[in-house]
Design a protein that fits this description.
It is a single chain. With 498 residues, this protein is an alpha+beta fold. The chain is built from 14 helices and 16 strands. Helix 2 packs antiparallel against helix 8.
Length: 498
């Protein structure tokens, strides 16, 4: 309740509270937007991983089928009975219908010198030597190379399309190199496969060999085919694991992307799915701007409305304060009214009794005031009361001291934390201040405006039944004694007893 009262008493706290609320709303919104951003990234990563898995399985399955066809040819070539068959029958035995599938090129069998001896598409075979091709030299130099997938090249038989060669080594009965079986696979197969995938406006798909050679890429650019990216930083993570994801900058177009990659089973191929961060966060950016803008406007309105409310509330407090002043301030003298005096007296009496502290009361009365009024008129009499009130206020400077108009020309002064001796000093100061104004009063024996003051003190130890009113009554008695003693004097509690 005290906090609520303090909050209502300070309009500025409305603005502070509104700013705190606006900051809180902004922070909550920022956290929510950040979580939305993380969710967008997580969804994109899952999508990229799923897409790379689909591509990996599709490519692996097709290469595996082609590898089986190559192995079937190897088995046939190593069978002397098959080699002795007539050419047309041998073609049917060695080459199944899969070799005629779309994007599959010719299956060729060479001797150790690279000359083509058997061609799945031609009887007799084309006179071609393949000894200069990487898929031949690798098999020639390494007995355990396995299935070799070459760099992109234009076929010896047709130069209209780029292809890659898939080769296996042939060995003779002594385990020596006897040639290769090689099949060609048109790169259009990968291009069509990539074109069927949804990537976003700035995404990419890349198929490459472990040495960094690009076999196919979307977006398609003929200049990228066969290019090596082995030296760029974005390529290194592809060799550190069989699959994974990371954020990198593309070597071919410089775009920042989330990459998900997978090695194609046992084959020397890597498929890489790249989702541009620009696309990943595009929808999030639109929502962030919309939500952020709405929250900004809302926060602005909260602060503005709170400022306007605080302004109006401050005006109301000022008016209420002025009304309280009017109710608690004597309109003639500017000191407290009798009502505010009684309220302050009760508060100070309870505090003094509770804390065992001194409390003194002065009763101040203008001397010969009736004759002053009769001689000078009520207007001058009012001025004299204002002079006396001013002298009293100037003589008490502590925050807890209080002066109120008790009635007519009589004033009451409360002096908390003040013993009798200190109270007498303050009373003498007030008496001297009024006398020093030299305000004429020809109805007084001394010819000047003066006051008489009665002083009473409470030592902080109340007797049974003792009240604040009794303390005021005691000071009032001392005042009458001061009047009887000739006026313009101060009579205290002990002095009267003596």
């Amino acid at each position: 309740m005290k906090f609520a009262g303090a909050f209502l008493a300070r309009p500025t706290l409305f603005i502070v509270g509104a700013i705190a609320a606006a900051i809180t709303v902004a922070c909550i919104t920022a956290i929510a937007l950040y979580q939305m951003r993380l969710d967008a990234f997580a969804r994109a990563r899952d999508g990229a991983d799923n897409l790379s898995l689909i591509l990996q399985r599709d490519i692996e399955r097709n290469i595996e089928v082609y590898e089986l066809s190559i192995n079937a040819v190897i088995d046939g070539v190593n069978d002397a009975v098959v080699l002795r068959l007539p050419s047309q029958i041998r073609q049917r035995v060695l080459f199944d219908r899969s070799t005629n599938a779309k994007d599959m090129g010719a299956l060729l069998v060479t001797n150790s010198a690279g000359d083509v001896e058997i061609d799945s598409r031609s009887v007799p075979p084309s006179k071609v030597n393949l000894s200069d091709q990487d898929y031949f030299t690798i098999q020639q130099q390494s007995a355990d190379a396995g299935l070799v997938i070459s760099k992109p090249f234009s076929s010896h038989l047709t130069t209209t399309e780029m292809s890659v060669g898939l080769s296996q080594r042939l060995t003779d009965s002594h385990g020596q190199f006897a040639g290769i079986v090689v099949g060609t696979l048109r790169l259009n197969y990968f291009r069509r496969l990539f074109d069927g995938m949804t990537l976003g406006n700035h995404g990419s798909l890349t198929l490459l060999r472990p040495d960094g050679t690009v076999l196919m890429r979307r977006p398609y650019n003929p200049k990228d085919i066969g290019r090596s990216i082995a030296g760029v930083p974005a390529f290194k993570p592809l060799l550190q694991a069989d699959q994974g994801s990371y954020i990198g900058t593309a070597a071919l177009d410089g775009a920042q992307r989330l990459y998900s990659f997978r090695h194609i089973g046992k084959y020397p191929l890597i498929v890489v799915v790249g989702l541009a961060t620009e696309d990943i966060y595009a929808e999030w950016n639109r929502r962030a701007w919309a939500i952020g803008g709405a929250v900004t406007v809302l926060d602005f309105l909260i602060v503005v409305i709170s400022a306007l409310f605080a302004k109006q509330f401050r005006r109301r407090l000022i008016v209420e304060h002025q009304l309280r002043l009017l109710a608690n301030t004597d309109s003639l003298t500017g000191v407290g009214t009798r009502r505010s005096l009684e309220s302050a007296l009760n508060v100070e009496w309870r505090r003094a009794s509770r804390n065992r502290q001194h409390l003194s009361v002065l009763m101040v009365d203008a001397d010969n005031f009736k004759s002053f009024n009769d001689q000078y008129g009520h207007a001058t009499g009012d001025e004299a009361l204002r002079i006396i009130a001013h002298c009293i206020v100037d003589s008490i400077r502590r925050p807890g001291d209080f002066v109120g108009r008790y009635g007519g020309e009589e004033f009451c002064v409360l002096l908390p934390h003040t013993d009798l001796r200190g109270a007498v000093q303050v009373a003498e100061k007030i008496r001297a201040a009024v006398l020093s104004t030299n305000k004429a009063n020809f109805g007084s024996p001394i010819g000047r405006l003066s006051v008489s003051i009665g002083v009473a003190a409470f030592d902080g130890n109340p007797l049974p039944g003792e009240t604040a009113d009794q303390l005021v009554h005691l000071a009032d008695q001392r005042l009458y004694e001061a009047k009887a003693a000739g006026r313009n004097t101060v009579i205290s509690q002990q002095a009267a007893v003596a």
